[in-house]
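Appendix B, record 7
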Amino acid sequence: MDAPDPFQSAPDETHTEIMHATYAALRKHGYADLTIQRIGAEFPKSKSLIYQHYDGKDELLVAFLEFLLERLEADVPTDGFSDAREHLQELLDHSLPESPESDHTEFMSTVTELRAQAAHDDAYREQFTRTDDFFREHIADIVRRGIEQGVFRDVNPEQTAAFIATTIYGAQNQRATTNSDDPILAARRELEEYVRIRLSAAESET
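Structure tokens (predicted):
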């Protein structure tokens, strides 16, 4: 699975270049050592343009997080699936790839680093709450459609979505912060078993 490209097809060139520079500086220096000066060093235009758009680093980083999460949401598989089981499997493949490309790992590491700031920053918490609600409701919609199609049992879609989403987030966080993929792959396999044994209507009837 390729990494989502958060800088593709963005409407404002200067804004996108600022976001790209912020991403590059964050990857290079980390959140704690990030400064406007270091972002400016990655920016191909005059650093004064950054200050024309943002009052300082805090405002810029909140805007960057919003930019990143909006594109993360846009990359979630949503269309072209007639079978809810196939749609849910594609979402698992997308969210927890077995062999992620390095760009994907770096992207998710950046998201994880910013998520950590939500523990004590209300602006970050609000952004992640919105995105988590979107992702969880998207999974619930897939489950509802599967129930209507008769391929999923008559489960509680919201509770099922909360379980799947929380497991995915935990595995993504572990992948971004540890050196072992074994627990992540085990979590993915267990999710697939959950779908096959607990969620699938065909399996529940056997």
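Remarks on this record: Residues 122-149 form the longest helix (28 residues). The chain has a mean pLDDT of 90.
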